[in-house]
Amino acid sequence: MLLKNYLTLLAIGFIWGSQFIFQDIALVSFSPIWIGATRAAIGAITLVVICKSLGVKRSSNQWVLFSVIGLLEAAIPFVLVPWGQQDLDSSIAAILMGTLPFYVLLLAPIFVKGATINAGNSISVIVGFSGLLVLFYPELSSGAGEINLVSASAIIVAAVCFAIALLLLNRVRDEHPLIVAQNVLLTASIQLIVIALITAPFEYQVASTTAIFSILYLGTICAGVVYYLYMMCIKNAGSVFTSMTNYIVPAVGVFIGALVTNDSIQTNTWVALLMILCALFINQILSPLTKNTVL
Known about the structure:
Elements (H helix, E strand, L loop, with lengths): L1 H25 L5 H23 L8 H23 L4 H8 L2 H12 L7 H17 L1 H5 L7 H20 L8 H23 L9 H29 L1 H5 L1 H17 L5 H20 L9
Helix pairs in contact: 1-10, 1-12, 2-3, 2-9, 2-10, 3-8, 3-9, 4-8, 5-8, 6-13, 9-10, 12-13
């Protein structure tokens, strides 16, 4: 089970780390809000097809809970993150999103019955966040990243929303992870389409083949498939461990970007990746030793 948790989290990190390249391609033909809405809708359709094919059916009606999770997990962040990133350096945005595990850790006793803050979770979150700082140290030390307080606040609010949504998933009972992922994306896609129609009315334009392919990849893989892995990881390894995808994704993004551009991978990137992997190891080894915790 321990190896399965690691492989699942690394798969999530690799898939979400690859999304940046495809988002850049899609942005040539589509607006950010419509990319988010279309991505969620295609992801939901993908999971509906998979559930039908495998004969997986829902066992309970918890649509109010799924709607709240969808709002916090996708609708609000999909609006706030792109808006906030317009006036923030990408490294600053990644570090602000990297605070998510801290919010999960601090808010767990409020949203999850019987949850406590234990040493394993606390140490792993601190080590992982330190790895994120090491990853972006060259950019931060150069003074290239300027902080706009309003934009930074938007990213932080998005991270808090993600954290609460992640914790609320612990309240979903007797439901297959595929159904959970499907229902969250279904409610999120409806909310995002409504937001998109209000804020950015759709204007037809001829999209390139690569942009359409990118949207399909973002929807089927970076939403549909990855959300199933995400729900499964929460179920098997807990909220804090799963929230550490926010440490893996930027590292994977840097690696993929370097491979695409044929740039050499810097020493600090390797060090950061090692620290992040150590954080995951600490979480899975120390946390089970602490009693009275459900994370």
